[in-house]
Design brief:
Structural class: alpha+beta
Number of domains: 2
Strand order of the largest sheet: 1-2
Number of strands: 4
Number of helices: 4
Mean pLDDT: 91
Shape: elongated
Radius of gyration: 23 Å
Length: 134
């Protein structure tokens, strides 16, 4: 029996990896980077927490509980990721587009950067409003 077969047999019925584990590994690497810049004993101890948690979750057989933990993490992470993506897009498009919020539904619209006053219709709610672009 090859190593691959033995490992597959060992992992059968175990949870494996998910987005929460990836987030914990990102926290570990952030702490490792901070520890490189300013090494302290406390950070060295804190670095063990995410790694141990990742391995405990990965080899766990309580799949339902791990999925519930991941769902709670994603409920927090998705709005943060959406905000970060919006900020990245605003920086990337700063020369060609402007971003405005619809006064009706508060969704964010990406508009071409053409100076003047324009009448805009929100694709989500159909609200029409004026936008001044400099």
């Amino acid at each position: 029996m090859s190593f691959r077969d033995k490992f597959a047999r060992f992992m059968y019925g175990r949870y494996g990896n998910d987005q929460l584990n990836n987030g914990l590994l990102a926290v570990y690497f952030l702490l490792a980077f901070i520890n490189l810049i300013k090494p302290t004993f406390v950070i060295s101890i804190l670095m063990a927490v995410p790694v141990v948690t990742v391995f405990v979750r990965m080899f766990s057989r309580n799949i339902y509980r791990r999925q519930a933990e991941n769902a709670k993490f994603l409920k927090i992470w998705r709005p943060v990721k959406a905000w970060l993506t919006l900020q990245r897009d605003r920086i990337r498009d700063r020369k060609t587009h402007v971003y405005r919020k619809c006064p009706g539904c508060k969704s964010i619209l990406r508009l071409p950067r053409r100076p003047g006053v324009h009448q805009v219709s929100c694709p989500k709610c159909g609200n029409k409003f004026g936008v001044k672009i400099k």
